[in-house]
Amino acid sequence: MPGPRISVTSTRAIVAAAERRGVEAAALLARHDVAPAVLEDPDARLEASTVHALWTDATAQCGEPSLPVYAALELPWGAYRVIDYLCGHASSLGEAVELLAQNFGLVNDVVRLVLDEADGGATMRLERGDGGQIPARYVDYALTACVHRMSNVIGADVHPTVSLRRAAPRALRAHTLAFGRDLRFDQAADKVHFDAALWATPSRAPDPGLRSVLRSHAQLLLAQIDTQPSLLQRLQQEVERGLPYGRTELSRIARRLETSPRTLQRRLAEEGLTWSRFIGPIRDDLAREYLRDRSLSIEEVACMVGYSDATSFNRAFVRKTGQTPGVWRSTH
């Protein structure tokens, strides 16, 4: 199964924060096969495994354990585009948090913001939809970004009650800047509680008409993400296109996908695959699909799945199925 993906905005914030602290951004990105142009694409998404590795590296390189917190605090308003402006035109902080939770899929494929409303206030929990553990660095960044953006919505510092699963860091300065002093570590869940007064705080620039337009736009963007093929699906499509022409070299397909061979190899390795083990089943499935079409000759099928001649195709097919293509076709 393809891994979860995360909006490039958070990684752009991490890289920028690390660079301000003396880390060479180009070298950092190169070590993780992330092209600088990807960070400038507002619609790009990175595999969660790449994000985790890059953030860990950036944090170690700059010697600042709380880098994700600072990165979220330093990220300018508008960096999250439609989400920022949608929340900014809510009628209250509470409505802004609700809109943020409803549209968090624009930020992350798997992580969700879950709201539990009671007594006029609400608790916002950070959870993975698949039940997995969320890395502490991402929790720090995501909750800081959420709370800090609510400060922009109402035009004043927001200091809710914050509970984190992680242990307390040695230095609390960054977390105190982000959340205030009502902060608890070693808790059962990652959550933020807004009391009734804070939840009802009016926003500083509500615009119902614009909010409606932006909400519709956010829904369209979410629908596009749901239908967007994963990297492995796009990789399979490129292999299928290239087989009839013998164009299935890893380097060629990586260029077409605007990534690097090493990134593709790492993604395949996460699924327990090598390049040859990935291509093999695709070729075999296509061969059987084409053989069922009796309008195609054996020679044509051989060409369409990337063999130089029918003899080579026959030998490979017999080795894998125990039957010649002609015999297999007669029984299927």
Summarize the structure.
The protein has helices spanning 8-20, 25-31, 36-39, 48-62, 67-74, 82-88, 93-102, 136-154, 173-179, 196-199, 208-227, 231-242, 250-256, 261-270, 275-291, 298-304, 310-321, 325-331; strands spanning 5-7, 45-47, 111-118, 121-128, 161-163, 183-184, 191-194. It has 332 residues and is α+β, with helices and mostly antiparallel strands.
Outline the fold blueprint.
Elements: E1 5-7, H1 8-20, H2 25-31, H3 36-39, E2 45-47, H4 48-62, H5 67-74, H6 82-88, H7 93-102, E3 111-118, E4 121-128, H8 136-154, E5 161-163, H9 173-179, E6 183-184, E7 191-194, H10 196-199, H11 208-227, H12 231-242, H13 250-256, H14 261-270, H15 275-291, H16 298-304, H17 310-321, H18 325-331
Helix pairs in contact: 1-4, 1-5, 5-8, 6-7, 6-11, 7-8, 16-17
What descriptive keywords fit this protein?
2 domains, alpha+beta, 5-stranded mixed beta sheet, two-stranded antiparallel ribbon, 332 residues, 56% helix
Can you walk me through this structure?
This protein is of the alpha+beta class. The protein has two domains: 65-225, no CATH class; 231-331, Arc Repressor Mutant, subunit A (Orthogonal Bundle), CATH 1.10.10. It is built from 18 helices and seven strands. The chain has helices at residues 8-20, 25-31, 36-39, 48-62, 67-74, 82-88, 93-102, 136-154, 173-179, 196-199, 208-227, 231-242, 250-256, 261-270, 275-291, 298-304, 310-321, 325-331; strands at 5-7, 45-47, 111-118, 121-128, 161-163, 183-184, 191-194. The protein has a five-stranded mixed sheet with strand order 3-4-7-5-6. Strands 1-2 form a two-stranded antiparallel sheet. Helix 9 (173-179) links the parallel strand 5 (161-163) and strand 6 (183-184). Helix 1 (8-20) runs parallel beside helix 4 (48-62), helix 5 (67-74) packs parallel to helix 8 and helix 7 crosses helix 8 (136-154). The two termini are 30 Å apart.
